[in-house]
């Protein structure tokens, strides 16, 4: 995976990371509820 700008992560990577965190929170909330 090549990156043109190494100093800052790509917006797409940031978005995926944010979605990943949200999914983990949602999954843990579902696990606690069930």
Summarize the structure.
The chain has 34 residues and is mainly α.
Quote the distance from N terminus to C terminus.
Answer: 39 Å
| Secondary structure: helix percent | 55-70%
Mean pLDDT: 80
Over the alpha carbons, how many angstroms does the gyration radius reach? 14 Å
Strand runs, count? 0
The low-confidence runs, each spanning 5 or more residues with pLDDT under 50, are none
Q: Can you characterise this structure?
A:
With 34 residues, the chain is mainly alpha-helical. It is built from 1 helix and no strands. It has one helix at 11-33. The longest helix is centred in the middle third of the chain and has 23 residues, at 11-33. The protein is rod-shaped and about 40 Å long.
